[in-house]
Model the fold of this input.
Amino acid sequence: MKARLRSLSDMLATGLAMLSTFLVVAPLVAIFVYLVYKGASSINLAFFTQPPKPVGESGGGMANAIVGSGVLLAVGSLIGIPIGIAGGIFLAEYGRGTRLAQAIRFTADVLNGVPSIVMGIAAYSLVVVPQKHFSALSGGVALGIMMIPTVCRTSEEMLLMVPKAVREAALGLGVPNWRSVVSITLRTASPGIITGCMLAFARVAGETAPLIFTAFGNVGWSVNLNEPIAALPLQIYVYAISPYDEWHRLAWAGALVLIVLIVLAVALVRYVTSRGVLKGAS
Amino acid sequence: MSANVPDIRASEIAAKPVPAPPAVPGAAVPAEIEISPVRRYLLTRGNSAAADRAFHGLMVLSALSIFGIVALIAWELVERSKLAWRTFGFRFFFSAFVDPDTHQRMFWDPVNGHFSALPFIYGTLVSSFLALLLAVPLAVGVAVFLTEMCPRPLRAPLAFLTELLAAIPSVIYGLWAVFVLVPLLRDYVNPFLAHALGWTGLFPDDNPTGLGFVAAGVILAIMILPIVSSLTREVMIAVPHSQREAVLALGATRWEMIRMGVLRNARIGIVGAIILGLGRALGETMAVTMVIGNTPEIHRSLLANGSSMASVIANEFAEASSDLHLSALMEIGLALFVVTIIVNAFARLLVWAVTRGAPAHSH
Done:
C-alpha cells in the first residue's frame, strides 16, 4: 500500500513537472505565433522606408524608428562596449583574485538587476537637465550605461578562458605586458567577447523605459544627436496604447521586426559559444 | 649544435658599428650578424614600464566606472528628491490626503500638490507577489523536469526556449498582454474568479476592463519565469551526484530522490533564485504600465485597477507639471533603486553561497 502511494506520488510529480514545462513553453509559442499572425501582413517595403503617416491615413511605416534605434544603439555601443571590455580586462588580467575585483563583479551583477527606468533617470539628470531638452545623445548615454555591466561580466568570463600558456608564451618572448593583453589575450578571446557584446546589444535594443524621457520619440525623420529621436520599442509602446487601429497594426509589425532581430542575435550567440571560444580564434 | 649566439646589447647596436674583420688571408670571414626587424625593434625600445602603468591605470578606471555609475545614480536621485523629502518627510510613504472639493481620499494629486507613494508601493507589492505565486511553482517544475526528468535530446531545445523567454523585450510582452491576455481575462478568467472566489472578498465583479492587478501579475509571472527557472537549474546541477546516488541507494523513487537529494540541498539557492525573480518583478516597467490600469488608488480587490512605482514614473515623468511633482517622482525612483539593490544583492549572495563562486551568468 505504501509502495503504491510512493509510486503514485512519483508519477504525479512527473506529470506536474511536464505540465509546468508545457505551461511555460505555451505562452512563448503563443506570443510568437500571434506576432507572426498579426504582424506579418503589415511587413512590406513601405514599413521599412516610410515614416508614420498622420492619424486617419493608412499606410506609412516605422522607418524613422528603425533608423533612430540604430543611432541610439550606435551611441550606446560607443560608450558601453569600450568601457565594458576595459573593465573586463581589469577583472580578468590585472585584478584577478583581489577584493576590489570581487566587489566590482558583485556590483556589476547587482547593477544588471536595477530597473532600466532608474538608468533612464540617471541619464536624464546627466544630459537632459543641463541641455534643457530631450535628445538622442541622452538616450544613447542611458543605453550605454546599461551595457557597461553586462559587457564587463561577459568579457571577463571570456578572457578567463584563455589558457595561461598563451599569455606566458607572449610574455616569455619579451612582449610588454599591456601589448600581450591587447594583441594576444584579447585577440584570442575576441569571438567570445564579440558574442558577449552582441548579447548586451540585443538586450538594450528592446529597452523602452529609459528612452521615454531621454530620447522622447519623434514623429518625423531625425538623426540629429541634439534632438529627440524615435526608437523602435518606444514607438511600439506609443502605438500600442493609442486608440487607433492603424497604429496598432504598425505596432504589431514593429514588434515582429524587433523580435526577429533579437532572436537572430541570441541564436547566433548560442551557435558561436557552443563551438567554443578558442576555435576559430584568429 | 648551437651556433655562437653573439651577445647583443642595445647600447652597442646604437653606438658602435660592427668592427671589420681583420684582413688575414685564408682565414674564414665571420658572417655579418643578422638581427630580425622584430628583435631589433624590441631591443631598441627600452622597457615598457610607462605604457604598462598607463594601460593598467586605464583598465582600473574603467572597472571603477561600475562604482561610479552606482554612485552617480544614487547621488542624482537623492539630490533631486530633496524637495519632496523636505515637503513631506517620511509621511510620503504612508499618508493620504482628502481632496478639498470632493472630500474623497486621494493619494496622488498633482493639481493641489499632494503626493503620497502609498498606492504605488501597494501596487508594486501586490503585482510582484501575485507574480511570484504564479511563477515559482511553474519555474521549479520546469527546472526539475529539465534537470532530472527530461530525455536528453529534448534538453537543449527546451532550455533554449526557456531562455528565449528572457530575451523578449518588455514592450512585446506588454503588447501581447494588452491585445490577447486582457481580453482573455476580461471575457473568461475574471468572471470565473469573481464567481468562484468572490466569497473571499478579493474578487468582486466590479471591474469589466480586464486590466488590473491580476493582468499585471500574470504577465509579470511569465516574465520572471526564465530567471527563476534557469537559476534553479544551476543550483540543482551544483548539487553533487553523491547525494542523488545515496538517496537512490536507500531505495527511493525518482521523485523522492529529487525531493530529498536535490531540492533539499538546493533549498538556499532556490530561495535566492526566487528573490532574484522578485527583484526583477519589482522593477518591471513597460508590461506592467500597459496592463495595470494606472489608477493611483488602493482597493482590496485583486481585479481592480492600480498603479506601480515604475509605471507612475514611466507615465508622468516626461510631463511632470511642477518641481514638486518631479521631485516626488524622483523620490519614488530612489525608493525603487534602493529596494531593488537590496533585494538583488541579497539574492546574489544566496545563489553565490550555493554555487560557490562559479561565474554567474548575466541575466
